[in-house]
Fold this sequence. Notes:
By secondary structure, this protein is mostly beta strands. The chain has helices at residues 28-31, 115-120, and strands at residues 9-12, 17-21, 36-42, 50-53, 58-64, 67-71, 77-81, 94-96, 103-104, 109-113, 127-132, 145-147, 152-156.
Amino acid sequence: MTGSAEPALSVRAPLGGTATALAQVPDPVFATEMVGSGRAIEPAVGLGPVEVVAPVSGRLVKVHPHAFVILTESGVGVLVHLGIDTVRLGGSGFTVHTADATHVEVGCPMITWDPDAVRAQGYCASCPVVVMDSAPGQVRSEPPVEIARGAELFAWAPTARGRLA
């Protein structure tokens, strides 16, 4: 068999909780997969501060207190967004553990935050994990399931879309 098809990218859960379809996220940009295809994780209630880790290895393109993007060696961008509309918190309640342009490995600590504190301020704590610029529906929608941090959240097979320069 010939060809240069790349293997599927294994995207790991950056935190534990209930893995859901992006359609369940109460934000139309994520729910309609405008940013890309993926899944979301709803952190459990009552955990206190949670350490979020890198779901893939690569170069940290951008980190904000509420979100980060990692670019894999094959040019795939993976976005992790901690909560919905949490940019409005101005970084309050989030501790960033790394900096832009840093090389990270799967499982490296990225950000610590408290989902319960976010909820107490009236924000949704759902965390979309998205392959940026991938076509809607490229990650198969699965029923909600409990997932541990570091377990495979989804596998994404590369296509012509889903690449960042």
